[in-house]
Amino acid sequence: MISSTEYGSHTWELLVTVDHQHEEVQKEFVLRVTGDLHIGGVMLKLVEQIKIPQDWSDYALWWEQKKCWLLKTHWTLDKCGVQADAKLFFTTQHKMLRLRLPNMKTVRLKVSFSSVVFKAVSDICKILNIRRSEELSLLKQSEDALKKKKKKDKNSKEPVTEDILNLCDSPVSSGLSGSPGLYSKTMTPTYDPISGTPASSTITWFSDSPLTEQNCSILALSHPNCSPETLAEMYQPRTLADKAKLNAGWLDSSRSLMEQGILEDDQLLLRFKYYTFFDLNPKYDAVRINQIYEQARWAILLEEIDCTEEEMLIFAALQAQYHVSKLSLSSEAQDFTCESEVDEVEAALSNLEVTLEGGNTSNILEDITDIPKLADNLRLVRPRKLSLKAIKPYWFVFKDTSVSYFKNKESALGEPIEKLNLKGCEVVPDVNVAAKKFGIKLLIPVADGMNEVYLRCENENQYARWMAACVLASKGKTMADSSYHPEVHKILSFLKMKNWTMSPQAVSDPESIDMKPECFVSLRYTKKYKPKQLAARILEAHQNVSQMTLVEAKLRFIQAWQSLPEFGLSYYIVRFKGSKKDDVLGVSYNRLIRIDIATGDPITTWRFSNMKQWNVNWEIRQVAIEFDQNVFIAFTCLSADCKIIHEYIGGYIFLSTRSKDQNETLDEELFHKLTGGQE
Question: In the chain, N or C terminus with fewer CB closer than 10 Å?
């Protein structure tokens, strides 16, 4: 036996394969090293032995068997655990990657394969001029979507050529940092009056070099919709289980691309992962707003999120706004100066911006000592098994986060028939404007599941006030909160868009407008209606949005998407501890929902605001969460790795800590602390 000191003093051979493009030079090199040689010394020895005069600064050592980078150059081989049987690759850290953006355009750019995904996404967003990179991440396409694409390519008679935007000359993708003033708020960007994209004189603020004016237009402008035939060839989820598959491929933000098996020139999807769009501002977010709009549009066209026929026509009308506006632009409109249009957009969107941000610009001095209350006649509907629904009028009083109802107004001074605490409940709109139906569906958590209650309102104004109060109460907020009035305004504006009638100025002959209506709706409605019928219905709905600018139409579309009951829910198939059957877990920005996989009905809701702690047992891959009032839940994830759900929960909690005072700097360490886990 020899001592470790004596053993360490002996040299041994280390095989390193070099990834270079010089065919005349060998690729495998054998270095004689000792265990106390540091990684930087190994690379220096290697470069001296290669004898190729080139810039090696982007190269690093990759350990194939362990699937890890050796980036700590001061660490010794012994400390890293590298021995003679190790296979090391000396390769570039930045490699080409194809990214499919939310608008279905593919860009090709250089990305760091050695940085953790969180940092890589931040660098990608600098290239694409998307603020708030923490809201996005990289997603591997689902197996079902890939199978459908292969089938389409196989059936295609002509070879498929993908239109790829090449951004490989970017300084950020070469490993350099973006210009520090990229998002400086002292700038006053100038916008094209029609498209809402940055005008030529300011294009340099929106790029570090690869994003020319033409490229910026591709990313910041909405392009013509695809045909129903193309839509039919794309993967569309039919069930909750199908929707769960869409969310299985999120990459781990705390590990690098290479560590997760991503190879050079692979294709990934860049998507908004977290549905909390902070500080949306039309001045600085032309690309970001368009990409959010596109992600929403495709989610609706591919039926990844459910909506009613009435809502589908609203979405179609807002999309058609681009088409119709471009056809009907007068020379007078084209003569507007860019500066005046900026003011117009700011004025038109001031309230909407507040709503999307979740902030408020007015009512700051509101009297918070007196919590407002609502009191009115509503009808109560309780679903009953094996019988008709019971519909009865009552006198309702809404105060704090609870709603109470009485037999009549006179009895309101006494004890209520029932008091419903709405904190933590699910609030679902049950509206059909054409039929004058204004309902609010409440799913209230109780010990054995959810208590289902419907409130029926008489008109739009009453509905907007009560719906806004219910939404805030579900989040634990009262009507004294500054977001109450913007919420009422948002609901009323959405109802106004739904409430259309054919005006005398409406287009009598849909064929007179060059519009393909089937491009604006999902396949379900192209099968239900003939193109002429569909065009007429879309143009009816279009009357309420025809005066909007294109930027406003996009933001209205995003706002309408946010109003859908399923908005922001990411689904996973899980098995709860103690349960004998699978359930679906919906993860949202403020809650977790247990959903019956067969019926799609919510079973229980747990709010993040009531969460005390959560952890993961990495051995059995089980997520355990503790809530207030001694509520414990535990589940294993069947449709994806439990790390994805763990990261979702931590990510949403991290995003809730953001404030505008931070000057757009992120506490990356806190993000990894909340999402990383210890495997």
Answer: N
